[in-house]
Design goal:
The complex is a heterotrimer of chains A (297), B (122) and C (128). Chain A is α/β, with parallel strands linked by helices. Chain A has helices at 16-31, 33-46, 55-75, 79-92, 99-121, 125-169, 190-207, 224-239, 251-259, 273-284; strands at 173-176, 179-185, 211-218, 243-247, 268-270. In chain A, strand 4 (243-247), helix 9 and strand 5 form a beta-alpha-beta unit. Chain B is an alpha/beta fold. Chain B has one domain (5-112): Transcription Regulator spoIIAA, CATH 3.30.750. In chain B, strand 4, helix 3 and strand 5 form a beta-alpha-beta unit. The termini of chain B are far apart. Chains in contact: A-B, B-C.
Chain lengths: 297, 122, 128
């Protein structure tokens, strides 16, 4: 018998005829829910997936996943499944579940259900073909939806963690009244530059700072866009009433700034951090006493 | 939208209450210029804490205002620019050259009283 | 959709823009950038075309969520779009439409203009 099957694109929503067929499949899958779900959980354990979770937990999640899966097959829409996938991901990511496990279990479910359909319709090749034509694209859409949902959630978590680390690595220090020091170390990409600016402006407002010493001794080099951003930050700080003193400007960075057209004469720069702090104190009206003695008060 | 203006000694303090239309800004400008003359004020403090956006029109108008009152012997201080607004202005490329800016009214008064050094680009 | 006819409409449009941006999860800082961009573009409409429309909507793509602005008018049009986007004009001077500034505030900007017929400016900002 010729094996002619229409190729439907795996990502397109189902056609009307397909929907009717899917309804029949969905009934079958619902009627056989108990043993299919057990079969699936057995395979998950055999494949050593979701080892971070207990058998009871796997079973509980499996039930929800199964129902959401069949629900998505029935409606042909992915919204509910997407929401469920995100929710599930939020729960299992902290448990240490990894991407290959999530993709793995969804594919296993797809196969368990496919086998069940094979068994049911094995006597009529024509109908089996039509069933698979309806089932496969839908099952693939589901697998993709769940996998992508999981990956996106993971990426979001990782980004959050990176933010947190970045925040920790760049404290804004209040040293004296009205004086803030912002030591910057390492590589600054546009994203971190933006974060620094926000931290700085917030810091100026919270601490009512009038002078900020931004020390970039620990920064090797910056590109033009980050350099622009630096200038922008100084401007914005000024609008909040704070003067920014940049210290630790390396010759390379000075060159970058000049190249983008910054008039270094307009930007307050001092060689090193100590000098910057002294200049800041001078601006704030503190007297700076030479080492070795204070005049009597 | 009326902007309330208070007289405190030789200073005039104008406090913006909400977003201002272009017309409101021009009216504010003219009112302040007249008030400076009438009261022989030495400075105008404009509190823009409640201003949602400071765009090119607002910036131009404020600079015009500063210039006009400078001709009448008064100084302009803009206070309370929100951090987000400051960032947007810097990103856009707007500066308030010739106008002193401080964090808030308290700082503005301290500046005028001579306790802090000028923070403006001249 | 906000109809732009007077300076009060500029404020209305930018407040709507801020509201939409915040509801889409944009930070306060980014919402202000969007509001400022809308203010500039809407003002150009009032100043040069007398009348126009601002439409705001949310967009989604591989980059995630974003906010899109479209400002259209039937005004005199921009004769040289390329030049208008250059940083030559003083943004707070009397010349210039502030377009280079708007481009810095937003992530994407697209301008279509026919002298004598009108202008459509679309700009998008993506949520970070």
């Amino acid at each position: 018998m010729p094996n002619t099957r229409d190729r439907t694109p795996i990502l397109s929503p189902p056609s009307v005829a397909t929907v009717a067929l899917l309804t029949e499949l969905v009934s079958h899958l619902r009627d056989n829910r108990t043993h299919l779900r057990e079969e699936w959980v057995r395979l998950i354990t055999e494949a050593e997936l979701l080892t971070a979770m207990s058998r009871d937990e796997i079973f509980a999640e499996a039930t929800s996943v199964y129902d959401s899966y069949v629900g998505a097959l029935e409606t042909g829409t992915m919204e509910a499944l997407q929401a469920y996938a995100r929710d599930l991901s939020e729960r299992i990511i902290p448990r240490g579940v990894e991407t290959h496990e999530v993709v793995g279990i969804v594919l296993l479910l797809r196969d368990v259900l496919a086998r069940s359909l094979f068994a049911k319709y094995r006597n009529d090749f024509t109908i089996l073909n039509r069933v698979l034509d309806a089932y496969e694209p839908a099952a693939n859409r589901i697998a993709i939806t769940v996998a992508v949902g999981f990956v996106q959630e993971r990426e979001r978590v990782i980004r959050e963690q990176q933010e947190a680390i970045r925040e920790l690595s760049t404290p804004v220090l209040q040293v004296r009244e009205r004086l803030l020091i912002l030591p910057i170390i390492g590589v600054i990409d546009p994203h971190r530059a933006r974060q620094l600016t926000e931290q700085l402006l917030r810091g100026i407002r919270t601490n009512r700072a009038r002078v900020v010493v931004m020390d970039i001794t620990g920064v090797a080099a910056i590109d033009a866009s980050v350099a622009n951003h630096l200038v922008l930050t100084v401007e914005a700080a000024r609008l909040l009433g704070a003067t920014v003193i940049v210290t630790g400007l390396s010759p390379e960075i000075a060159q970058t700034l000049v190249k983008i057209g910054v008039d270094l004469g307009k930007m307050t720069t001092v060689g090193d951090l100590q000098g910057g702090i002294e200049e800041a104190e001078r601006l704030l009206g503190y007297e700076v006493f030479p080492k070795g003695g204070k005049p009597g008060s | 939208m009326e902007v309330p203006i208070l007289k405190q000694g030789a200073y005039l303090i104008a406090t913006v209450q909400s977003a201002l239309t272009d017309g409101d800004l021009l009216q504010l400008r003219d009112t302040l210029v007249q008030s400076v003359s009438r009261h022989r004020a030495r400075a105008v403090i404009l509190d823009v804490t409640a201003l949602d956006v400071l765009d090119s029109f607002a910036t131009r108008t404020l600079r015009d205002l500063a210039q006009m009152i400078r001709l009448r012997g008064a100084e302009m201080v803009v206070v309370g620019i929100q951090p987000e607004v400051a960032f947007a202005m810097a990103q856009f490329g707007l500066t308030l050259e010739g106008i002193a800016t401080t964090l808030d009214l308290e700082e503005g008064l301290a500046y005028l009283d001579g306790s802090i050094k000028p923070n403006r680009i001249t | 959709m906000v109809s732009i006819r007077s300076d009060a409409d500029i404020v209305a449009a930018r407040l709507k823009g801020r509201e939409l941006a915040l509801s889409l999860g944009f930070s306060a800082g980014d919402a202000t950038l969007v509001a400022t961009a809308i203010s500039e573009l809407a003002r150009n409409v009032v100043q040069y075309a007398l009348r126009g429309e601002v439409a705001l909507w949310s967009v989604t793509s591989g980059r995630g969520r974003g906010i899109a602005i479209s400002v259209r008018d039937e005004g005199p049009g921009i004769p040289d779009v390329g030049r208008a986007l250059e940083d030559g004009f003083s943004t707070s001077g009397r010349l210039g439409l502030g377009l280079p500034g708007v481009r810095r505030l937003m992530d994407e900007i697209d301008i279509e203009s026919t002298p004598g017929r009108g202008t459509i400016i679309c700009a998008t900002k993506w949520r970070r």
